[in-house]
Design brief:
By secondary structure, the protein is of the alpha+beta class. The protein folds into two domains: 151 residues; 107 residues, Immunoglobulin-like. Helix content is 42%, strand content 22%. It contains six helices and eight strands. An eight-stranded antiparallel β-sheet has the order 5-4-7-8-1-2-3-6, covered by helices on one side. Helix 3 packs across helix 4. It is rod-shaped, with a radius of gyration of 44 Å.
Length: 264
């Protein structure tokens, strides 16, 4: 017999707690008589439970002799001795069970709190994923709209070249005069400084007359750097300047980044 495995199985604790059947109790008792290690373990379990129960029991319960003295009776000497050591601590089992129940409830509460936290984290991650999917769908829809607009047969493509303030800059305007729609591909412009924004201008050349079409809003955060505007002007050229955030009434010419003329 593997005595160590038998001891670690937990059956001795159930035996001490009185939770086994009569047949199982007899089996444990036989093993205890046969193997000193098992008997010693039973004694240790009993001591541990008695210590726990005594610690939890009410301290205000009067002793038996005290109760008898108050009642004016004399303790009888023919008290029947208990047959087993296990019966000495049996009255305390309720206190031990209460303590174990409290510990178990505390454990379950903590487990429930951890589970609730995990559920909240999972819900947050799901919401973020849904947002990413939504943004991806919106981005795809926007890309398809841009492709459709750019491939329209009535589109006029106007290259915008870099000027003195930024010779390396470039952009491109896609103008559909019939639909009064203007798309600006500003991928070739550098990021504006804080407090500044790019402003698109429609120009007539004789005399030179600028008309604001709009700002390249959220330029830094826009991934594809393509911006759509309504343009009902008789545009002969397009230019983009760098202006204070909110735009200007008239272009700052020394901050003209790109310029392009509409081909006739």
């Amino acid at each position: 017999m593997d005595i160590k495995a038998y001891i670690e199985s937990g059956i001795l604790e159930l035996y001490v707690a009185g939770q086994l059947s009569e047949q199982e109790n007899q089996e444990v008792a036989n093993y205890a008589n046969e193997y000193p290690e098992i008997e010693a373990e039973i004694i240790e379990i009993e001591k541990a439970l008695m210590g726990l129960s005594a610690a939890l029991a009410p301290k205000s319960v009067p002793a038996f002799d005290t109760i008898n003295s108050r009642l004016g009776t004399t303790p009888k000497t023919n008290i029947i001795p208990l047959d087993s050591k296990r019966k000495l601590w049996t009255p305390y089992l309720g206190w031990a069970a209460s303590a174990l129940l409290t510990i178990g409830l505390a454990y379950l509460y903590n487990q429930n709190q951890e589970l609730s936290t995990e559920v909240q984290i999972a819900e947050t991650e799901m919401q973020q994923l849904e947002l990413q999917i939504s943004e991806a769908n919106n981005s795809l829809e926007k890309s398809n709209q841009l492709l459709y607009a750019i491939r329209d047969k009535n589109i006029t493509v106007v290259p915008l070249g870099g000027q003195n303030v930024s010779p390396g800059s470039y952009a491109k305007a896609y103008w559909n005069k019939e639909q009064k729609q203007l798309l600006i591909d500003a991928q070739g412009l550098p990021e504006p400084a804080d407090g500044m924004a790019y402003q698109v201008w429609s120009l007539t050349l004789d005399p030179l007359t600028p008309t604001s079409v709009g700002l390249l809003e959220d330029f830094i955060d826009d991934d594809n750097k393509v911006f759509a505007f309504e343009n009902a002007n008789e545009s002969q050229a397009f230019g983009i300047t760098l202006e204070p955030a909110g735009g200007s009434d008239f272009p700052t010419l020394d901050q003209l980044y790109v310029l392009g003329v509409v081909s006739s």
